[in-house]
Amino acid sequence: MSVRNNEERLATSQSDSLPTKDITSPVERPPQNTNPLSFVTPTEFVELPSRGRFYPEGHPLYNEETIEIRYMTAKEEDILTSRTLLKKGIAIDRMLQSVIVDKRINVQDLLIGDKNAIVIATRITGYGALYETKVICPGCTEYVLYEFDLNKADINHGGTTEGFTETKDGNFIISLEKLKVDVEVKLLTGKDELALVKAMAIKKRQKMDETSLTDQFRQFIIGVNGHKSKEVIESLIENMPAADSRKLRTDYQKIIPNVDLSQEFTCENCSLEQTLEVPFTADFFWLK
What we know:
This protein has about 290 residues and is α+β, with helices and mostly antiparallel strands. The protein contains nine helices and twelve strands. The protein has helices spanning about 5-15, 75-80, 85-90, 90-100, 110-125, 190-205, 210-220, 230-240, 240-255, and strands spanning about 45, 65-70, 130-135, 145-150, 155, 165, 170-175, 180-185, 220-225, 260, 260-265, 275. Helix 2 (about 75-80) packs antiparallel against helix 4.
């Protein structure tokens, strides 16, 4: 046998046993799912009280009547029980950011009413619509364990009604009868709400008096008779008669898009029957 033949056979043998480079581009095969059970978190669409009307053009929710959220999972429960997030007061916001499908949407940019609707819907997906918590009976002032049905929430779309004027910027004018001035107010967002929570926490740490009502006025009042300086607004807040203060709060609640959780309450102790606002207590997400 010649050396040449041996070399040819060796070459043939090596070509059979060693991988060769294909001159054509390799076809990528999709990764195979080795998990016999593939789970997908379900989603649902939540009706927005604002119907997207008060968001600026370019915002993901501009003129959108619904928002898609994922069902609450163990991941969101971890967020809600994080000591760090709870201490900072941002556990709820971080949880909502996690369940919102469209990641272009920032929770802090949501109008408070829309945010409330998402909070309620998320709670229902996680723990159901029945919400049992302790409330103080207005009649006998005793604590009563009562069960509310979150599915009975009503939607208030807010906006312009008789007696209110909407500005070109999406704000509203409320007329005060005693001071006879026109107050321009804006719709609060999650960012404004967080600022209020932080302000309250600071005052609590410094053992200062609570001023939650006037602090809220400072957040949503942006003008008085066309004047928008802080000095004018502060003067109004400090000198506003109680009757005007009450009218401002009442009218503002009519204007803002929100979820109405008022439900019929019957006290088992004194048999009082009255419409009661469903309270957002620690039992809402942190079930015992």
